[in-house]
Amino acid sequence: MGEDLILQGLSEDAVKLFSERLGDRLLSVVFFGSQVNGRAFGDSDVDVLVVSKDDVSYPLLEDVCRGVNMELTLKYVNKVNSMPFHKSDVLYMLRMKHPFILGFFHTSLVAYDPSGFFGEVLNKISKNIAEGEVRIYERSGLVLVK
Fold first, then answer.
1. Deepest in the core among 4, 65, 99, 121, taking most CB within 10 A?
2. Would you tell me the crossing angle of helices 117-130 and 87-95 to the nearest 10 degrees?
3. pTM for this entry
4. CA-based end-to-end distance of the chain
């Protein structure tokens, strides 16, 4: 229970910090990995997908992520590892059925998604699974693509 409260506080802080720095150019903040799927060890990092509009330069996006990572790591002790992507990158990975993006289907916590962009990504993955194009093994995270 304590870990859930920490992740909840961390997610609220992450959304606040990314929103302050990126404003309306921030599309989604999504937590994933061992902290979300319950397989974390004491020193496991916290993985965060940060999706922005395509007009944000990568140097700016990377600087924002580094700053937020540092601030949250100092506050919560666990290392925070945020990964920046443009909307077009996520859509490309979805189109290519890349295992990285498909893995979010079972093990993600969407902390911020006001436009519904990432929810739509998850819906498309669900459709791919229903149509038999993709199979994701929940327990192992293994992704098979036809």
1. 121
2. 0
3. 0.90
4. 39
